[in-house]
Each structure stands twice: as C-alpha cells, then as structure tokens.
Amino acid sequence: MQPWPIISAFMSSLPTGWIGVDLGSGNGKYLPLPADRPGEVWTIGLDRSLNLLKIAKRAGGVDRDVVWGDVLDNPWRRGVFVNI
C-alpha cells in the first residue's frame, strides 16, 4: 500500500535531522518516509498492538524504533515531536 500523497509530501518537506513520532503507527507504513531521503528524518512508531509493532519494526526492510504504548497516554512532552 502506498502512503497518502499528502503525508509523503509533508514528510519530504521536513528538514534533515528532524524527529517524528507516529502515534498509532499500526504496521509502520509511514515510518520509512521520506522515501526520497531515507534516514534523514528519524521516525518512531508508537502503538498499543504488539503484533502490529512487530511488523512496524521491519517497515521498509530495515530495523525501526517502535514503542509499545497507548496513543491516548501520549507519553512525550508536548511539542517535542512532529505528530505524523
């Protein structure tokens, strides 16, 4: 499944070195973005489903950073991440 064009465009617009957290990342389909600059924007996936996080961990064929948690808990300080 291809990511929505608006999400791809947004991720491509982020400067190198930015960090994003995908709250409710599911299978991690957005974690490899931006596809045109792999590795330049660090994304972390958060989901409450351990089974989906196992899939997200290998999104794009490389190891990704994932965190088990509930999106409603939002464990990070406000404004620290760009919410994808």
Features:
84 residues, alpha/beta, four-stranded parallel β-sheet
Descriptive overview:
- The chain has 84 residues and is an alpha/beta fold.
- It is 19% helix and 20% strand.
- It has 2 helices and 4 strands, in the order H-E-E-H-E-E.
- The protein has helices at 5-13, 50-56; strands spanning 19-23, 42-47, 65-68, 82-83.
- Strands 3-2-1-4 form a 4-stranded parallel sheet.
- The longest helix has 9 residues, at 5-13.
- It is globular and about 30 Å long.
- The model has no long low-confidence stretch (mean pLDDT 87).
Number of helices: 2
Strand order of the largest sheet: 3-2-1-4
Helix content: 10-25%
Uncertain residue ranges: none
Major sheet, described briefly?
4 strands, parallel
Strand proportion, as a percent range, falls in 15-25%
H/E series: HEEHEE
Mean model confidence by pLDDT: 87
Rg (C-alpha, Å): 12 Å
- Terminus-to-terminus distance: 17 Å
The shape is globular
Strand-pairing-aware structural class: alpha/beta
Number of strands: 4
Short description:
The protein is an alpha/beta fold and 84 residues long. Helix content is 19%, strand content 20%.
SSE topology sketch:
Layout: H1 5-13, E1 19-23, E2 42-47, H2 50-56, E3 65-68, E4 82-83
Parallel strand pairs: 1-2, 1-4, 2-3
